[in-house]
């Protein structure tokens, strides 16, 4: 027996021992993988002694194999094409040994003679995004995180053909393996044989041939992890048998598979540049809970903040702190990020959405787009688009034709990609009426229904919509209604839960407060400094000192004027009340005015000097 066969038998024996050992399953207990075999079949609803096969794939946890046999686990990562067939043969022997006779019965009834091995867990350096799939991962086992953007139709793939000879009255079977096969080398024959070795004609019996399901997916890197200014990377994924039809466009998933090179023939020859495909071994959908990674310390800080009675004010002030004012708008955006509780009525099975849709309408230059960008930064899953550069199918979904195979494929739009997240639409008023109609279903039913080119399906689009629009006439006209100002139909406006009208009021006092806020943010910042980094939770309450800095300066200046000018009711710095004579400056909520010929410029300079001194001392 050669060296390769000895290594194959050794791997098969080691994995067989691994299946017979007891392992700790989180939340379930300690037992062998024989108990996990019970999840691969189910009892028939009508016949108690008949069992139906649910899946021919046993999913193992990677840390079990890594802790039991580190060398075998590393070999599995480096050479999965050699190790995986040995694992599957060991599993087949383990099942046929009588450990689970009901599974054997279910396999026979389903006509299956092949069992598969799946794996999930933490793969360390082999856990990458589509952008990181370089040549060093070729022919290795990797775990790729991403979002499904395209799905092909499920097609049968021939794995063995049967041919009949009229002269010999015999049948001949031929196996077919391509580069996507995980067992054995690809076969040289790519077409059906028409003659045998002696030149006698053969007839292909397609009804006796064996097929497995085959599907091609396009996995794109997550929008929040894609570098700014670069196109998102994607990888083509091939899934077969029980892994097909488990994902649809918009699903976030972690696919464990083998990265393989694939040559493309050009004019009958293969170029030196190859493209890579990922052959799926296991598929796992990602949920909102699976992506939340919170440390114990952060969880404690979150609980402490949650006890604050003014928690909503604190969160609103933390959202886009560089933008002055708009407190009510920020509170609405915080509530949108938190979302509500979706419900399904038991009697009618009607789905009540829990996501909040927000529309910002106002004059140009009131920070609508900046609030959209701040929301995208805070949201864990957000997709951005514009009204002018988006079409109806670009927002929902489209049916495209594959340039290589000519097959129809379903491609997800922005709202489908933003499932369980937030989609931000800027320049919402610039969209065409036909494109705007396409999002009516998404905003209320949170689904996208496609009935094109023979494809009829429904995709999930459970997302919150945050849109910003400018008035129709350049500036908001207070004398007419909101509908006439933004030229949006009532059917669309009714789908927005919160509608904020943001006006640029011609108020000198308001402009003065905005100027103070901007200068306080940028005046003492070094060139190229983008601002302070994340502050610890313990220092959140200390940030209120800077917000009241200018107000304290005005109060101190007023007290000094009272001391110097005197007058009826005037008190010193240490007095409990404040008084002003006819020559003193009166102010209300930051509004500075003059009375009796008082030079307000001196007052402004004194306020600035006091503010500067406080900042330098801080």
From TrEMBL:
Q: Where does this chain mainly localize? A: nucleus
Q: Determine if Nucleus is one of this entry's keywords.
A: yes
Region labeled Disordered — which residues? 525-618
Compartment(s) of residence? Nucleus
Got a GO cellular component term for this one? MCM complex
One family from Pfam that matches here is MCM
Q: Tell me which InterPro entries the record gives.
A: AAA+_ATPase, MCM, Mcm3, MCM_CS, MCM_dom, MCM_N, MCM_OB, NA-bd_OB-fold
User: Spans of biased composition, class Gly residues?
Assistant: 566-578
What is the superkingdom listed in this entry's lineage? Eukaryota
Composition bias of kind Acidic residues appears in: 552-565
Q: What is its EC number?
A: 3.6.4.12
Q: Which PROSITE patterns does the entry mention?
A: MCM_1 (PS00847), MCM_2 (PS50051)
The segment(s) forming the MCM C-terminal AAA(+) ATPase domain are 311-518
Q: Which GO terms describe its molecular function?
A: ATP binding; hydrolase activity; single-stranded DNA binding; single-stranded DNA helicase activity
Give the matching Gene3D superfamilies.
2.20.28.10, mini-chromosome maintenance (MCM) complex, chain A, domain 1 (3.30.1640.10), Nucleic acid-binding proteins (2.40.50.140), P-loop containing nucleotide triphosphate hydrolases (3.40.50.300)
Could you list this entry's UniProt keywords, alphabetically sorted.
ATP-binding, DNA replication, DNA-binding, Helicase, Hydrolase, Nucleotide-binding, Nucleus
GO annotation, biological process: DNA strand elongation involved in DNA replication; double-strand break repair via break-induced replication; mitotic DNA replication initiation
Q: Which reaction does it catalyse?
A: ATP + H2O = ADP + phosphate + H(+)
Function noted in UniProt: Acts as component of the MCM2-7 complex (MCM complex) which is the replicative helicase essential for 'once per cell cycle' DNA replication initiation and elongation in eukaryotic cells. The active ATPase sites in the MCM2-7 ring are formed through the interaction surfaces of two neighboring subunits such that a critical structure of a conserved arginine finger motif is provided in trans relative to the ATP-binding site of the Walker A box of the adjacent subunit. The six ATPase active sites, however, are likely to contribute differentially to the complex helicase activity.
Q: Which family does it belong to?
A: Belongs to the MCM family.
Self-association state and partner proteins as the record states: Component of the MCM2-7 complex.
Descriptive protein name: DNA replication licensing factor MCM3
Say which species the protein is native to: Polytomella parva
